[in-house]
Design a protein that fits this description.
Length: about 280
């Protein structure tokens, strides 16, 4: 498998390169920079770390550095936007929180969905932006760096809007796996950051996604698992309240009493006496 590195693609020390390819694929390779591949004509199969994406005009596949990637096609036309990590902070004018969030998605969700399919008029708009970006980077006319930065900024914002709006290709649904893992490990008091890292999400996206699927914030959900198990133990075991408190993950009995009353409206002792 080939490896492409800064010295191969950025021989002059550039941080941004745009390539135009047609009627060809690309053998399996890896590299130490970001890549955004926009298909403008034909169809192709992009394979990223073994996951296949069928692409058509308006599809964008983004590849994190270090991932294996290949393109299978003999008829597709596409642009490759190649960006070094340091360009994120140094090259983008008017860098915004939204753009940082997109790169966070690329960095941290390497096993998640990595294909966006533009639709309608957005296909032509994205194609026009990247075509002009290619022209600026290739021809290097006066003030080309400023123009390229602006064009790339707009293209990334388009991608982010699709990612945020759920218009990316279908994602593997990890919700069931996450909830199953929490049912097994809630008593270990996992933090939101620990769980998001385990399942390859960034914290802010994971927090929003979790609340959307469960209807509760992460901490409230974990606490409800603890209280549900505590009620089972109060009803069906001879364990003391102190032992139950420790078993479901509370550091002290006082906190357990407070949380139990908050959820059930009564104390553990009163709850047990009613069984």
């Amino acid at each position: 498998m080939k490896g492409f590195y800064h010295s191969d693609i950025f021989p002059g020390g550039e941080s941004l390169v745009v390539q135009h390819n047609s009627d060809c694929g690309c053998e399996k390779h890896t590299h130490d920079f970001f890549e955004f591949a926009l298909v403008v004509k034909g169809e192709a199969e992009h394979i990223v770390d073994g996951k296949s994406y069928r692409t058509r005009p308006g599809s964008v596949v983004f590849i994190n550095f270090g991932q294996t990637h290949e393109i299978i096609s003999d008829s597709a036309e596409y642009y490759n936007v190649l960006i070094t990590p340091d360009y994120i902070g140094s090259g983008l004018r008017r860098e915004t929180k939204a753009v940082r969030e997109l790169f966070s998605f690329v960095y941290e969700r390497g096993d998640g969905d990595q294909c966006v399919n533009f639709t309608g008029a957005d296909i032509a708009r994205a194609t026009a932006l990247v075509t002009e970006l290619y022209r600026e980077v290739t021809e290097k006319r006066e003030s080309w760096e400023t123009a390229a930065s602006d064009l790339l900024h707009l293209f990334l914002i388009m991608l982010l809007r699709y990612v945020r709006g759920g218009k990316a290709a279908a994602k593997p649904d990890k919700t069931a796996d996450i909830l199953a893992w929490l049912r097994e490990h809630y008593a270990e008091n996992p933090s939101l950051s620990e769980v998001s890292e385990r399942f390859y999400y960034n914290d802010s996206y994971f927090s929003r996604m979790f609340k959307r699927f469960t209807g509760e914030g992460f901490n409230a959900y974990v606490n409800s698992l603890k209280i549900n198990e505590a009620t089972e133990l109060l009803e069906n075991s001879l364990l003391s309240v102190e032992e139950i408190s420790a078993r479901v993950g509370y550091a002290d009995v006082k906190t357990f009493y407070a949380q139990f009353r908050k959820v059930t409206g009564t104390t553990p002792g009163a709850f047990r006496s009613k069984r």
